[in-house]
Amino acid sequence: MAVFTQRPAATLLAAGISLWAMTARAQRPFFNEKGISRPLLENYLDHAVTMTEFLAVDPYASDAPYPNKEDDIRLIRNIGAKFIGRAIYRWGGESVMANKDYLDNAKRLVAEVHKNDPDVIFQAALFEQISQQVNTVPIPAWTFKALGLPAEERHFRYDDMLNLKGKLVDHWSKGNSVPDITRTETQLWFMFLAGTYMEVGCEALHLGQIALIGMEDPALTEWTAFLVKLRHYAKDHTRHHWVLLDAHTPSGGMVVNGKSLLDFNSFPLRIKSVPEHPQQGVLQMGFTDALFGRSEGGISPSGWKAKSMPYLVELDNFGISNHPGVPDTTTIYPWGFDEISWFYQQPEQYRHEWLQYAQDWVTAHDSNGHLQMPVTRVVTLGWKKPRLKYRANTKSEHCPDGMNDEATIKAIWQKADKQRK
């Protein structure tokens, strides 16, 4: 049996949030022109998964980033997932955004899932990375129009997205930089990505590390103006005339004059190593920059007030440390690995126990927090080792690399739904 330093019982969330299965249909429409209510938003967050690149079928690759899409469709239906996080995004390789087959395949997968459950929301991501491949992508006229700019017949310009002072240029590697939100070209790129993902069927956008992208925007002036235009575009280009926005918010949120720019916040779990119990990890209030108890309050984009905005916490991936296998209790790397890579290496029974522990811990310590369950994610075990993939799917001929965590996720959600009744 696994040993945890803390394992509190789950506490009930705010009264009035009933079982999803009993209320989802009755509470339609989920959105109106003003947005989404907090109870309905939290219903989505309570059934959220990280399902990296589920919508990505790269026509340039010899195989899909994550094969076995049909089994993934089955998993979504089986566990009752309602919010499919990071379903499509670019981290380099931007030329694929000009490929019709790539986008048509993503749209097809959205339609397949919606045949089973039309309430599912897909999230795309606008990340803090661009490569010189953006130069190969033509800019559609609608992108200029969405930003109130005169249309031009040209491609995107990598150099025009870079910070003029050289900040975070070549930050990831030579020719791979962090785009600066104060540059008009960056806003054109993000609007193009957002609108393209909306056309595919995504109704949520993760904005990545907003502090890096906003390196020259400490007052969030440029972010505020851009997100107004982004939401305006969504009114005519999403099913619910609304787009759910979140980002990694190490400062606690994106709040300007008492108003949150985001519908909810998000952040890694920040798992702490337990040296006396090899390979084990726990959650702790105030560990490094963990978001627990720090999500800023304000008036949401939908108009409701929150003392603390709801947020998702996830098993994030950000690379291996320089001390793999070492239980350094002062860093964000559990046992020297990023969170999902640490989780991937644990025995099956411990993974199952740990997911229940994390669900109980988050619920008990901050009812504004919601655990985003891992389903598919890149794993990094070493600098010169191949990048593997964590798959929560039940292992079968239809998903031979499944790790058998699917049934546990479903059981945890069913238990939590009964407690909220």
From TrEMBL:
Top-rank taxon of the source lineage equals Bacteria
Which key words are in the record? Signal
Signal sequence span per UniProt?
A: 1-26
Keyword Signal among UniProt keywords: yes
Quote the protein name from its UniProt record: Uncharacterized protein
Q: Please spell out the taxonomic lineage of the organism that makes this protein.
A: Bacteria, Pseudomonadati, Bacteroidota, Chitinophagia, Chitinophagales
